[in-house]
Amino acid sequence: MSRRIIPVADVSAIPHVAGAPLAASGTLADALSRPLRDLRISVTDRCNFRCVYCMPRAVFGNDYPFLPHSALLTFEEIERLARIFVAHGVEKIRLTGGEPLLRKNIEWLIERLAALTTPEGRPLDLTLTTNGSLLARKARSLRDAGLSRVTVSLDALDDMLFKRMNDADFAPGAVLDGIAAAQAAGLAPIKVNMVVKRGTNDGEILPMARHFKGSGTILRFIEYMDVGTSNGWNMTEVLPSADVVARIGEHFPLVPLEAHTPAETAQRWGYADGSGEIGVISSVTRAFCGTCTRARLSTEGKLYLCLFASSGHDLRALVRGGASDEAVATAIGHIWQARDDRYSLLRGSATDSTSAGQPRVEMSYIGG
Ligand code: SAM
Ligand code: SF4
Ligand code: SF4
Predict the structure, then answer these.
(1) Which atom of ligand 2 has the smallest separation from the CA of 363?
(2) For residue 140, how far is its CA from the centre of ligand 1 (angstroms)?
């Protein structure tokens, strides 16, 4: 029988609401002077794919005990927490999962979040990461609900290889249809994320680059990361982003582009002929913890300060325990102020336990 591995790893703490009140002022900074600007909200721990690097079927099998519905934050709870995070300085919210489009009536949540504004009155950058399988059907309603943009994951164009990687018999054509529907609905600029596993899909780097070059869609290559403990990660399967850039550059000359913002995770490269750009996310070979302004809210309302954290702070317990907005804001404020997480920066200097055995939360639970 499958073992639900998350709670075993997660010795989460119920945040203290005592202590000096800390009103949300938008100026919060953590122990390394990093502001709080981005919030990733996981709306479900379920997925219709079984990507080998994320939810391998051997672990996430038919009898895997996913969270019961009562454990999930409701849309009202998510909206309330999001409003408090926005008051603390969050300007960008990304919905993720699991597969966020599997959450019933996700459009209702998007409507609520799209109505939030920053303390200065600006609308949020509201986006969503999806495997694209339901996007052709949902792009229009997502846009109508107020979603700004969408990021779609696609690891290969080759039919057999893509099916092998998602291990759920989904063809790449369905994802491409979803991307086209998103484009037609105005969810642009669309970003496409490709996780590169050396020896598995690195042969798809060029076909993918060729396919999206000149399309207005921004293709981004993500180094295969050692998130969670179930994917059997091994450094030999990581293809450094520098190699990706070199491989594409041999065929289509590239020039480096400036980052849009200091906290941008991707390094941007433009095609020298002006036909668009690609991005590389070098989480393993070039850590960007120094500018990491991201908080993550798990499906059951735990606040994680790092993708590689092994425990979260139980905001659902606060919310369901009747805490006032001020008390929740105080708790979030103190948690963020104490944050000194920088896993990727330390990875190189850590012991072997960072890549094997150490309990860490799974990406499908915490969201990418
Ligand atoms: N199901 C949605 C999707 O696939 O887009 C959203 C959730 S998924 C966890 C978010 C992103 O994390 C995806 O782009 C996925 O490719 C990426 N991801 C998952 N496991 C990864 C790993 N081990 N290394 C790098 N990226 C990973
Ligand atoms: Fe599902 Fe996304 Fe994880 Fe793939 S990467 S298994 S689509 S949550
Ligand atoms: Fe941020 Fe943690 Fe990733 Fe560093 S390892 S960039 S702190 S999420």
Answers:
(1) 3
(2) 23
- Does residue 263 come out as left (phi exceeding 0), alpha (psi in the -120 to 50 range) or beta? alpha
Tell me, yes or no, whether 32 lies in a domain: yes
CA of 288 to the centre of ligand 3 (A): 7
In short, whether 225's Cβ falls inside 6 Å of ligand 1 is: yes
Domain extent, residue 25, equals: 11-366
85-105: per-residue pLDDT in tens? 999 999 999 999 999 999 999
Write out pLDDT tens, residues 191-215. Answer: 999 999 999 999 999 999 999 999 9
- Pocket-forming residues, ligand 2, beta carbon under 6 Å: 47, 49-51, 54-55, 97-99, 131, 153, 364
DSSP state, residue 290: G
195 CB within 6 A, ligand 1: yes
The CATH number of residue 152's host domain is 3.20.20.70
Which two tokens mark 305? 């300060």
Q: What is the number of structural domains in the chain?
A: 1
Q: Considering only CA atoms, which residue is closest to atom 2 of ligand 3?
A: 306
Please indicate, yes or no, if residue 328 is contained in any of the structural domains.
Answer: yes
Residue 300's CB is within 10 A of a number of other CB atoms, namely 23
Instruction: Give CA torsion, residues 128, 205, 232, 61, to 10 deg.
Output: 50
pTM of the model: 0.93
Q: How confident is the model at residue 2 (pLDDT cuts 50, 70, 90)?
A: very low
Q: If you take atom 2 of ligand 1, which residue's CA is the nearest one?
A: 130
